[in-house]
Request: fold
Amino acid sequence: MIMKAKPDNKKKRYIIYTRCSTDDQAQGDYTTLDAQAHHCKNMIDAFGYEMAAFGKSGVVYDDGYSGKDLNRPGIQSVLNDIHSGKKSFDGLIFLRLDRLTRNTRDLYWLIDLFNSKEIAFVSVRENLDSSTAIGRVVIGILGILSAFERELTGERVKASCIARARQGKWTGGALPLGYKLINDGPMLPNGRQPHKVVINEEIGPKLRAIWQMAAENKSLTEIGNTLVKLEVPTYKGKSWRKQSIAAILKSPFYKGMIRYAGELHKGNHPPLIDDGLWEKANKILTGNTPKHYFTKKPKEYVYLLNGILRCGKCGSHYISYFANGRSRKFFYYACSRSLQRLGCDVPNLPATQLDQAVIDFFRVASQNQDIIVKAVGDAAIDAKDKLGKVQKEIKQAEEKLKIAREKADKLLSLAIEGAISKGATYKTKMDALDNEIFALQEKLSKLEAQRKVAQMTANSSEFLYSNFKFAIQYLDKATPENQKALLQLLIKSITVLDDRVEFRMYVGSPYEEIACHLPENTHNNPGNAPKNSNAPQDHCRALVPTAGGSNIRPEWLPNVVFRRTAEPQVVQLVVKMDIRRSKRILLSLVDPLPPVPVRKPRIYPNTIVEALKIKAFINSGQTKITWAKTCRELNISESKLAHLLKIVNKLPPEFVENMKQCGNQETLRIFTGRRLLNISRLKTIQERRDMINQLLLPR
Reply:
């Protein structure tokens, strides 16, 4: 049995959207929010719909917002309701299309969104309904026209401003500091009040001093301090900045000119300074003379290993940061996960100590090749064994390739001479030989690559030694920036573990990038040159600071972004590390590491005995000895004398008697002089006894 669907008698719920920008409110016809809501409500009543329970009785207001985008609180509340899936309304109605948006892209996006959520929207003035195909097409066309109107309005405004600038009139916006607007004549018939620009008597005369000071080569800081003394306020009432002062000095408005859209014209406003003074001040300001140009603040410390340090526990990169001490800054490398407390707990490394330890290791390694051989370890031995096996496989592959090519040439010759037919058997045999030759060629290319890698690794100690020797010549004399660049050319990564450091060093073709023009004395001693085929032959500047303290990059040092092979060969060096209590980091290949100096145990003196001796010395004569004489005889300060006497006089007598014979270092560690003095400062004798008993309790 087929049953008819029951008609949906539920009325559709609509909300009214109204918008009015500042410009629209001054133009009359159907622009006020009340008028828009009135017309939309009449349309809802005509269709027989009802108002949805949304906003203020179903009306959404965006008062004073432009339609150029969707950054409006009213339309955002509508969109948030749609995205949340509440379905608070079935449709949206507005007076005109430009009330919803003036942006074509936003309009199409809204059409797609409303259609996907089955929400209709109706434009009253254009009589358009988005639920129909023709309605969507017309809405899109009108949206394009609305966007065109907005762009055309912008062009008209810009043309109007250019025309005003050419007439010497102010084009609008915030006036430069030192000027103000006043009424100029009676109000116009259209209700607008004309204005003119005049000098602000309170600020303008004080502001003239900055051009005079700039012309006298005063620094921007001195000018700023003068403005503060003259109580000249900034635009926002904040502190004067060098950039703000420079902007005022360079502005042509103060010499009576108007600049707009790249054009400069004579203005109708009175100039604050004459043209000659403005030109003189700007000539000095723009001449990059000292005190007037902005220089980057020099780095307090260059982290040489920044970017190549890795944590051996979690694999994350170490990042650089600093901490402020009482008198100086301390620089550290910290594991990024440890610093963010994301599961790693490795301690921070002092950057200055680690950087110096790496340079010291390079210096030691450059003096003894056996150190590098030991660091490379079994890798070189394994590489030599592998090199022999690869060379053997290459020889076998070359013999097979030679045989396959001879067979293919012989078969081809027989076919050409007509000794055999070029039938299916011939083609099968030729295809098989071609496939065999291709496979052998592929195998040979891979074996050649393996031989090159194995050869590099087998000779890695020689490569590293020669390049260490080359680098250390200039590393000590280089600027920190150049030291960092050179280290990052030599080292791929450094993995820091608890008791060792693993260097991954580039060898082979990457070092060819270090080939450079070295001084003449280097050519005379080939042992100083890098171990590669591209040995330098010409003159150059070494890696040393240039004259005048400039940090110009030396010509021989490669760029940071340098060419490497697709897979640069890397060899690993395992180096022992020891972090001493004094934060000194040692990197060494000596086994064992240099012994840690044994600290002698601290001997705690018996302060009570010392105080009793001093008290007995004072009372030893027929009359009491003065403090001044006691200090001279015992070579102690008056403050120490006063403290010791206070301790022995204020502490409980039984405690003083017990401490006279005490030689236990653990007890003396508890009752140091500073702690006894703090106990003696307590108000009552009972408080002192309680504190002593509390300290004697077992922990």
Q: What stands out?
A: The radius of gyration is 44 Å. Residues 1-7, 509-566 have pLDDT under 50 and may be disordered.
